[in-house]
Amino acid sequence: MKIKVIPRSNIRTSKKSSSKFRPLIEALESLQPGGDAIEVTYGNDKELNSMRNVVYTFNRENGQKVKSGKDAVNSKIFFFKDK
After folding, report:
1. pTM confidence score
2. 24 and 51 in contact (C-beta within 8 Å)?
3. Got the DSSP string for 15-48?
């Protein structure tokens, strides 16, 4: 048996959440620094945390800095890029 050790960064895994949040990821790709923000309505805190995790992963994989702001009263979250 031949075993080869490779860096973990070379292994890409697909996550279940990537297909559920595909519209969010596509919208994140279209964001411009200092431009419009994305407004997303969420149902509960678990869904909110999942969306934020998707954005954190997007930032890490693409070397970008998408930030978020939350409107808890109206159950909305906003994603934007600073200048």
Report:
1. 0.73
2. yes
3. -HHHHHTHHHHHHHHT--TTS--EEEE-SSHHHH
pLDDT, one tens digit for every residue, the chain (83 residues): 777 888 888 887 766 555 688 899 999 999 999 999 999 999 999 999 999 999 999 999 999 999 999 999 999 999 999 87
SS3 76: strand
d(CA 74, CA 77): 9
- Identify the residue whose tokens are 């895994």: 13
Q: Both ends of the chain: CA-CA distance in Å?
A: 53
* 42 Cβ contact list (under 8 Å, min separation 6): 48, 51, 75, 76, 77
Instruction: Report the C-alpha gap between 32 and 12 in whole angstroms.
Output: 27
